[in-house]
Prior knowledge:
By secondary structure, this protein is of the alpha+beta class. It has six helices and twelve strands.
Amino acid sequence: MTTSRDQAPSGVVYYLEEVMGTVVIFDLYVEPTIERCVIDSLVERARAILQRADSDFSTWNSESPVSRLRRGCATLDDMPADVLEVLSLCGSVRDLSQGWFDPWAMPDGVDPTGYVKGWAAQRALQVFDHDGITGAMVNAAGDIATRGRPGVNAAFRVGVTDPGSHGRLACVVDVDSAIATSGTYERGQHLIDPFSGRSGARAASASVVGPDLGVADALATALAVAGSDFLDLLDGVPDYEGLTFQTDGSRKHTTRFPFAADTTSTATRE
Length: 270
């Protein structure tokens, strides 16, 4: 079910959607000329995209297409078009990451989870390319896709949590399109090294910014597992930048990572 909060005087409308085992937040920056029923209709379209992704890709639902594929109860010929698209895109990022992101190396069969949440949020964001909406942000449990601007001459700003101290921000980032963060400081050692098959990560936190949230999400997973050495590879990937933190607070980043110069304004926490 989609829940809407009251419209704020600033022209910001917030919606919450429970999906994919988490809560996705829509922040919409709207002009006074757009009718609320139009906004609600757009949100329903975005909600349907997320729910369809959950239905197709859930590894918890034993009857989802991906679960049936993992068990060997279905073949690629049986898969919906969206599943085939995501698997193809995962293959491209596997090549781009030199194997550090590899859904086919996961236990119990192919698992595109590290790509699909960002992919679905990016698709949902596209719905809000509409007259009367000047800016939009889709926040899928800290993986964030944006379009437009939250205000005149304003950028979306996202605060990255310090993995060594959850109550404070390690930095604030200007986000033009998307940012994804992966790490072990909240969920423990849940990441899998695709080369060894064992759980583990060489960075406490890894963030990637770029034009597409699905790709950023996958590259952030690769960066967390591979560690800061992966930054040299990422520096050569056009339009994507990366940042790693260790638990002691030390950080490394690519040459053009977009740290906010002025961090006095409010930022969304990753």
